[in-house]
Amino acid sequence: MRRTYPMLALALAAGVAAPQLIAKPAKLKGHPAAEAQTLDLAKQLIALRSVQGPDNKTPQALGVIKGALLAAGWQDSAVEITPFRDTAYMIATWPGSDPSLKPLVISGHMDVVEAKPEDWQRDPFTPVVENGYLFGRGASDMKFDAALATSSLIELRRAGYKPKRTIILQFSGDEETTMASSRVIAQRLRHAELVINIDGGGGTLDEASGKPLYWTWQGAEKTYDDYQLEVTNAGGHSSAPRPENAIVQLAQAVEKVGAYHFQPELSPLTKAYFEKAAAFEKDPRLAAAMRDFAANPNDAEAAATLRSSPAYVGKIGTTCVTTMITGGHAQNALPQRATANVNCRVFPGHSREEIRQQLVQVIGMPMIKVTATSGEDSIAAPASPMRPDFIGAAEKAMHLINPGLAVFPSQASGASDSMWYRALGVPSYGASPTFSKDSEDFAHGLNERVPLSNIAPGITYYLSLFTDLSAR
Ligand SMILES: [Zn+2]
Question: What is the fold, at CATH topology level, of the domain defined by 32-221+383-470?
Fold first, then answer.
């Protein structure tokens, strides 16, 4: 899961003035060994089909990472690969010199979304380098990022760096499906100081010039929750209808949910997002609404404008939408049962039960039973705090490779492994240094790719970030 800001990137292409002048990066020292290793590891990982189900190659992919770490000095006993259902997860520890400090965790996942080779132009599980891109399932989500972070840690070790704070590199094995192994990992690492999620955040390239436009770190995500609306009825023969009909009643309830808008909300994080992201919105009406909403979340007109945009509706509060309905059992019978699924994306800070009660109130029909059905696949998670140590280290690392670039926080509308950590009170920040064009974001889709121009700056970025967060 990653990259949540389509539609912002067209500002320059549309002729809007650049919000800031981006200086050319200063001459940075190259890291040829780490650069070569990044590409090599990414290719090896893509070639292993780490997809849920039979012949899931996640354990083998983790074995590739483990092999690289062992060759670079990690102890065999410090790189643990644990089988888990049809997959596996990895926890690799680089002990710091001060055991009293809580560890820095670097978090990613090794599974990928299924890909049907017949639909792709190239085989999804054969890595191909072409025209400056690496193609293959997992190129952008997230085997390239895994290779980049691993190679950067190895480069740090090769250079003789000794962390004061223990650094733990962990990969889950089912982020794209059940997220059950990531839940176990978060439980085991709940003593962490903070988590860098290398599968969140990221940079956007200008469509026309291909130059970096802005970079975001992900500090919060909405909670996924499903609710079932159910109405039952004694039924009967359709030739003798009664006033109360289960399908009609359900339809009335669905109508009410559809017409309802949850109270707009603004957090310190989304305030910072709207203030800065407005500069990259090409529609002046939306840009003005973003600024107005950041200044005053009770500005009903600004909220209404943002609500009308699919890019922003999810950022101003909880949304609930009916996604499925069933009802009736025979063409000539009164329906005995009708149900609907309402899918909600809950703004951080609200519990599942709180939203359920709100739906009950909105519907206001006692015969409609509202039940939360999401189970243990998701959990309400607060936003991570705007910690100056993380923000300072991330901005410093990003400005090392892109001086003056706009940097701001983001809140994702989908869930990532960060949710389990945040729910346990451990701050987690999506902070991938990978840039791409919105038009070339093929994560989960066909012909997934990543620009190779990310390798060298990505290593410089991670060396700086990992050092700053583990040196004290
Ligand atoms: Zn992912």
Answer: Aminopeptidase (3.40.630)
Rounded to an integer, what distance in angstroms lies between the CA atom of residue 398 and that of residue 460? 9
- Expressed in angstroms and rounded, the spacing between residue 2 Cα and the centre of ligand 1 is 6
Distance (angstroms) between ligand 1 centre and the Cα of 431 equals: 13
- The C-alpha atoms of residue 345 and residue 249 are separated, in whole angstroms, by 25
Ligand 1 centroid distance, CA of 240 (Å):
54
Distance CA 171, CA 202 (A): 19
Q: How confident is the model at residue 28 (pLDDT cuts 50, 70, 90)?
A: low
What spacing in Å lies between the alpha carbon of 466 and ligand 1's midpoint? 20
Provide the Cα torsion 244, 250, 253, 258; round to 10°: -150
- pLDDT per residue over 420-445, tens digit each? 999 999 999 999 999 999 888 777 77
The rounded Å distance from CA 139 to ligand 1 centre is: 10
- For residue 244, what is the DSSP state? -
Mean pLDDT of the chain: 93
How many residues are present in the chain?
A: 472
Q: 26 pLDDT exceeds 70?
A: no
The encoded tokens of residue 261 equal 């808008």
**CA 444 to centroid of ligand 1, rounded, Å:** 9
Cα 211 to middle of ligand 1, angstroms: 24
Q: Ligand 1 centroid to 142 CA: how many Å?
A: 5
Locate all alpha helices (DSSP H) within 236-283, ordered by sequence: 246-259, 268-277
**pLDDT, tens only, 449-469:** 999 999 999 999 999 999 999
Taking the centre of ligand 1 as the mean of its atom positions, its distance from the CA of residue 65, in whole angstroms, is 17
What's the CA-to-centroid distance between 31 and ligand 1, angstroms? 26
Domain residues of the chain, as ranges?
32-221+383-470, 223-377
What does 55-86 look like in DSSP terms, one character per residue? T--HHHHHHHHHHHHHHTT--GGGEEEEEETT
Q: How far is the CA of 72 from the centre of ligand 1 (A)?
A: 26
Give the CATH number of domain 223-377: 3.30.70.360
Give every CB contact of residue 435 below 8 A, 6+ residues apart in sequence. Answer: 202, 203, 204, 205, 212, 215, 451, 453, 454
